[in-house]
Design brief:
606 residues, alpha/beta, Glutamine Phosphoribosylpyrophosphate, subunit 1, domain 1, eight-stranded antiparallel beta sheet, 35% helix, globular, binds 2-deoxy-2-amino glucitol-6-phosphate
C-alpha cells in the first residue's frame, strides 16, 4: 500500500510530482521520495515522514528535470526511514515500487554475487540491480520483460533510466497502476485520484502488462514484450471538492456527510414511483443463485457480517461470510449456483482482489460492492454495485461503511422480493421506511456533545469491550475497530451471549463497556448480558433506541438513545455514535485522525 507517480514532460516536473504525492499520502505516509533525470544523471531525494518534509528540501525545490518519479511509502520490508524510502537507484536506474517481491532474498544473493552493492533493507532494491544487470545484455524492453519474469510477488513499478532521457517505464502485477494523458506530457500513477488533478484521460494497466511513457505518446506491452492496444477512459472530469471545508478532519466531514451519501445511494437504486429497487443489468436469473458468499476485509468484512443477517431475514438463500485473506487460501468448495460478492471501499485491497481473481479463475459468478468504480475489483467483477459515497479520504472508514451496508440491504431486499421470499406488502413497507433513513441518521448525528464527554473515560481505560447480539454484533465489531484504529486503545467487539464463555474474566472495576441493545428481538437477552458485566464493575455505555418502555436495568453509567425505526435499519443508527466515540477519543489524544499510525487507506499488499 504505497503510492507511485511518474511524469514525463517538456517542463520541470518536481512540483507536479510533489503535488501528486500529497494526493497519494492516504496510501502510505511513513516516508517519501523523488528522482528526476537531468543532464544525464539521476537526482534522488528521500525523506522520512510526510511529503511536506520532502517539499521543504532545497534540492527538490531546485530540481529542473523534465522526467521524474515519486513515491509515498507504507513499510513492508525495512524500517520506515529515508534509506528505505523509494525511489531506489543505481547509477543507471531508479525505481519506485508498490507491492511485495517474495523472492527478493534469493535475487539479492545472485546480484551480490554479480558485484551489486545494496544500500537498503527493502525488497524493492533487487529490482534496480536486476534491471541494471539485464541492461548489460538486453535492450530496454527485453531487459524489462526479463526482469519482470524473474520477480515473484506483486508490483506496480515506475522506472527511469540515466541513458534514456525520454521515457518512463511502468509495470503492473497485482498492484494497481494507471497511465494519464496530458498536454505534451504523460503520467503514471497508482490510481486515478493521483492523476485527476492533471488529466481525466486514463488507461489502466492489467496484470502482466507494462508501458513505455514518452512525452507525446504511450506504448503498451504484454508480459512477452508484444505491443498491445489499450483503451483510454474519460473519467468524470468534475474535480470533486476534496478539501475538508470547515471540518478539522476528513473523517469528521465524512461522518457528517452520511445523511447525504445515504440519500445518494437510495436515489441511485430506489425507484419511488414504481416502489421498486433498480439493480440494472443484473446478469443472473434468481433461480441460478442458491447461495451468497460475502467477502471483504476490515470494515468491509463487517459490512458482509451485517448483510448476512439481512439475507437470512429477507431471503431463503444460504449465506456465507469470509475474510478475504482467509478465503483466498481456504479449501473452498466452489459452486456454480453461488454468487460471490466482494465488498471493498477502495476496490484495490490486495486480499479482496486476490479472492475475486480466484473466483474468476474458477468461472464463478462475481459481483462487487465498491466506492471507487474505476478500481481493479470493480473492473474485474462481472457485475458492480457502486455505493456512490464520493471520495473517502479518512483512513478509518465511516460513510463507506454505511454506504456498503445500504447497498447490501437493497440487494437482499431485491433478491428476496424477486425470489418471492419477501411478500410485496412487506417489501413496500421496508422501502417506505428506508426513505426516512437519511433524516434519522441526521438526527442521530446530534448525539455529539454527550459522546465528547464520554470519550474521555475510554481514553483513560486500558481496554474496552463492545457487545451486541444479532444485527448489533457486526456493529459492535465495527465500533471496536474504529476505536482501535483511531485512538490505539485495545477494544474488542464480542457477541454479548459469548461473554460468559471466557471474556467476562476481562471485566474489572471501571472498565468501559459499550452495549448495543436496540429494542429488537434480542433486547431482553442483551440486557441480561449487560447486567452480568455491570455486576462485575463495568461502566456500561448503553446504546439503544427511543421507546416508551422503561429500560429494565439500573447502574448504567451512560445511555444514548437513537431514533426508532424499522429494526432492519437500527444498525445504521447504532453505528453513528460509535464513529463519533472513536473520533473524539482520538481528538482528545491528539492523534492524526485522518492518517492513523501504521495504517493506510488502501491495503494493496498481502
Ligand atoms: C476501516 O476503517 C479500515 N481502514 C480498514 O479495515 C478497511 O476497511 C479495510 O482495509 C478494507 O478496505 P477496502 O474497503 O478498501 O477494501
Amino acid at each position: 500500500m504505497c503510492g507511485i507517480i511518474g511524469i514525463n514532460s517538456k517542463k520541470p516536473v518536481s512540483a507536479s510530482i510533489i503535488n501528486s504525492l500529497k494526493k497519494l499520502e492516504y496510501r502510505g505516509y511513513d516516508s517519501a521520495g523523488i528522482a528526476t533525470l537531468h543532464a544525464g544523471s539521476i537526482n534522488e531525494v528521500k525523506s522520512e515522514g510526510r511529503v511536506d518534509n520532502l517539499e521543504k528540501n532545497s534540492v527538490v525545490q531546485n530540481m529542473v528535470g523534465t522526467i521524474g518519479i515519486g513515491h509515498v511509502r507504507w513499510a513492508t520490508h525495512g524500517l520506515p526511514n529515508s534509506i528505505n524510502a523509494h525511489p531506489h537507484s543505481s547509477q543507471n536506474v531508479s525505481v519506485v515500487h508498490n507491492g511485495i517481491i517474495e523472492n527478493s532474498t534469493l535475487l539479492k544473493k545472485f546480484l551480490v554475487s554479480k558485484g551489486h552493492k545494496f544500500k537498503s533493507q527493502t525488497d524493492t532494491e533487487v529490482i534496480v540491480h536486476l534491471i541494471t544487470e539485464n541492461l548489460k545484455t538486453e535492450n530496454i524492453v527485453n531487459s524489462i520483460t526479463k526482469t519482470l519474469k524473474s520477480l515473484h510477488g506483486s508490483f506496480a513499478l515506475g522506472i527511469i533510466f540515466k541513458d534514456q532521457p525520454d521515457l518512463i517505464i511502468g509495470a503492473r502485477r497485482g498492484s494497481p497502476l494507471a497511465v494519464g494523458y496530458g498536454p505534451n506530457e504523460n503520467y503514471l500513477g497508482s490510481d486515478s485520484y493521483a492523476l485527476k488533478s492533471m488529466t481525466n484521460k486514463i488507461t489502466y494497466l492489467s496484470d502482466g502488462e507494462f508501458c513505455v511513457i514518452k512525452k507525446d505518446h504511450v506504448e503498451f506491452f504484454n508480459e512477452d514484450g508484444i505491443k498491445i492496444n489499450k483503451k483510454v477512459l474519460e473519467l468524470s472530469s468534475e474535480e470533486e471538492k476534496y478539501d475538508k471545508g470547515d471540518y478539522k478532519h476528513f473523517m469528521a466531514k465524512e461522518i457528517e456527510e452520511q445523511p447525504s451519501t445515504l440519500k445518494n445511494g437510495i436515489k441511485e437504486y430506489v425507484d419511488t414511483s414504481n416502489n421498486d429497487i433498480n439493480i440494472f443489468n443484473f446478469p443472473w436469473k434468481t433461480n441460478e443463485i442458491s447461495t451468497i458468499t460475502l467477502i471483504g476485509c476490515g470494515t468491509a468484512y463487517h459490512s458482509c457480517l451485517m448483510a448476512r443477517y439481512w439475507f437470512e431475514e429477507l431471503t431463503n438463500l444460504n449465506v456465507n461470510v469470509d475474510i478475504a485473506s482467509e478465503f483466498r487460501y481456504r479449501k473452498n468448495r466452489f459452486k456454480k449456483d453461488t454468487l460471490y460478492v466482494f465488498v471493498s471501499q477502495s476496490g484495490e485491497t490486495a486480499d479482496t482482489y486476490a479472492a475475486l481473481s480466484l473466483c474468476k479463475s474458477k468461472e464463478m459468478k462475481t459481483c462487487s460492492v465498491v466506492n471507487v468504480i474505476e478500481s481493479s475489483i470493480a473492473r474485474d467483477s462481472e457485475f458492480v454495485l457502486p455505493i456512490h459515497c464520493g471520495t473517502e479520504i479518512g483512513v478509518a472508514s465511516t460513510k463507506a461503511f454505511l454506504g456498503q451496508i445500504l447497498i447490501l440491504y437493497l440487494l437482499a431486499l431485491k433478491l428476496g422480493f424477486l425470489r418471492k421470499d419477501l411478500k410485496r406488502e412487506l417489501f413496500n413497507k421496508k422501502l417506505k421506511d428506508l426513505k426516512e433513513l437519511p433524516d434519522l441518521v441526521q438526527q442521530t448525528l446530534l448525539t455529539d456533545n454527550k459522546i465528547q464527554t464520554i470519550s474521555k473515560t475510554f481514553n483513560d481505560a486500558k481496554g474496552s469491550m463492545f457487545l451486541g447480539r444479532g444485527f448489533s454484533y457486526p456493529i459492535a465489531l465495527e465500533g471496536a475497530l474504529k476505536l482501535k484504529e483511531l485512538s490505539y486503545i485495545h477494544a474488542e467487539g464480542y457477541p454479548a451471549g459469548e461473554m460468559k464463555h471466557g471474556p467476562l474474566a476481562l471485566i474489572e472495576e471501571g472498565m468501559p463497556v459499550v452495549v448495543l441493545a436496540p429494542r429488537d428481538d434480542y433486547y431482553k437477552k442483551t440486557i441480561s448480558n449487560m447486567q452480568e458485566v455491570i455486576a462485575r464493575g463495568a461502566k456500561v455505555l448503553l446504546i439503544t433506541n427511543k421507546s416508551k418502555d422503561e429500560i429494565i436495568s439500573e447502574n448504567i453509567w451512560e445511555t444514548i438513545e437513537v431514533e426508532t425505526t424499522n429494526a432492519d435499519l437500527l444498525p445504521f443508527l447504532l453505528t453513528v455514535p460509535l464513529q463519533k466515540l472513536a473520533y473524539y477519543s482520538a481528538l482528545k489524544k491528539g492523534y492524526d485522525i485522518d492518517k492513523p499510525r501504521n495504517l493506510a487507506k488502501s491495503v494493496t499488499v498481502e
